[in-house]
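Is this the right way to post structure tokens for a design question? Let me know if I should format differently. Anyway, here goes:
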């Protein structure tokens, strides 16, 4: 890949600027010129430069002062100080402050450009190596996460299935306990479904992290209807009341089919982590405009489940979240929720259903970009 280095020359000598610019352009560099410190600060704030050449004496400020300010704001750039009035003290001070070079006029341009070229190419190579190391490190961490997750959860699933089978073997030998067979088979079935969901969620989460997804106009209420029907059928042995309060008959958002996964995971948690005889879920849909005048559809999903303590509200959306007995299984599903919301440029967080008392249930809040 062709690398084009970008340099900023800061000097009030037009003849010098024209000369060094033409040489850099000839060598394939992209070049910008600033005649004052103020102009240099303005240009540097708008784009990144690989190297900056700064004259010690500028019309509006001391070049050394400008260098220190630029170095502080843009530490990844290389800095070369130039002057026609050099002294040892300035040179020592420049290098102490992190300058990459200090040159006296008249400059031997070819020699300087070669040194600059070598330095910038070395820095680019170091950056590429660092980026590669980061990617490999992230890939390793991701593989470790999925390995630990699958090992931990599948061990629990297999243990539950094995225990159920052992109990059924005992029940088969005791006619008085045959009625318990059905209950154990139901547990085994639930564990097999849990394993299938785990594999599905891992696959979806992994794919989301590796690719962009298309976003289109989606009608929200129809997706809610489908999801609610699915949840009620899935937990047909539970009494589930889900009330939806929309502000219109049709509500359109910018999302895609994966938004159904968001609603399904949140509603699934509302039922699964609920000890009440009757599961109560209230869905409130409204409009919200942020400070940048961006319009969202706001969805509040309030349940009467076991709730989520304040200390857990951020980590439950993280892939690194470690489940405990109270919130078993939430970590990965809510990681998927967060990733999908980020992909469609939305937001998700959780609050208490009743402020200050997490034990009364949760309120999951979603902001999804509205179709204008």
């Amino acid at each position: 890949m062709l690398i084009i280095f970008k340099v900023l020359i800061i000097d009030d000598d037009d003849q010098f600027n024209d000369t060094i610019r033409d040489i850099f352009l000839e060598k394939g560099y992209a070049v910008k010129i600033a005649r004052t410190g103020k102009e240099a600060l303005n240009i540097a704030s708008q784009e990144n430069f690989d190297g900056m050449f700064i004259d010690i004496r500028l019309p509006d400020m001391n070049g050394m002062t400008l260098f220190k300010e630029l170095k502080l704001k843009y530490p990844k750039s290389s800095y070369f100080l130039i002057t026609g009035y050099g002294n040892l003290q300035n040179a020592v001070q420049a290098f102490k402050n992190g300058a990459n070079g200090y040159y006296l006029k008249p400059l031997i341009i070819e020699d300087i450009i070669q040194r600059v070229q070598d330095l910038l190419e070395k820095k680019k190579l170091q950056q590429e190596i660092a980026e590669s190391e980061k990617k490999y490190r992230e890939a390793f961490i991701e593989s470790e996460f999925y390995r630990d997750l699958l090992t931990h959860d599948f061990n629990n699933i297999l243990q539950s299935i094995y225990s159920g089978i052992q109990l059924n073997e005992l029940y088969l030998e005791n006619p008085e306990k045959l009625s318990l067979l059905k209950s154990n088979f139901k547990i085994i079935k639930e564990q097999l479904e849990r394993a299938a969901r785990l594999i599905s969620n891992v696959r979806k989460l992994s794919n989301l992290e590796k690719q962009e997804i298309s976003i289109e106009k989606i009608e929200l209420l129809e997706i809610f209807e489908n999801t609610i029907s699915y949840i009620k059928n899935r937990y047909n042995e539970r009494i589930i009341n889900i009330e939806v309060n929309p502000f219109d008959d049709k509500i359109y958002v910018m999302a895609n089919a994966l938004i159904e996964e968001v609603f399904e995971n949140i509603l699934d948690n509302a039922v699964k982590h609920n000890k009440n005889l009757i599961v109560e879920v209230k869905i409130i849909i409204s409009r919200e405009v942020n400070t940048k005048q961006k319009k969202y559809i706001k969805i509040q999903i309030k349940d009467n489940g076991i709730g989520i303590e304040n200390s857990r509200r951020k980590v439950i959306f993280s892939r690194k979240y470690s489940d405990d007995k109270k919130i078993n299984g939430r970590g990965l599903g809510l990681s998927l929720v967060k990733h999908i919301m980020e992909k469609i440029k939305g937001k998700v967080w959780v609050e208490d259903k009743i402020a200050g008392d997490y034990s009364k249930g949760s309120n999951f809040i979603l902001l999804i970009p509205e179709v204008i």
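Format looks fine. Someone answered above. Worth noting: The longest helix spans residues 109-172. The CA atoms of residues 18 and 241 lie 76 Å apart.
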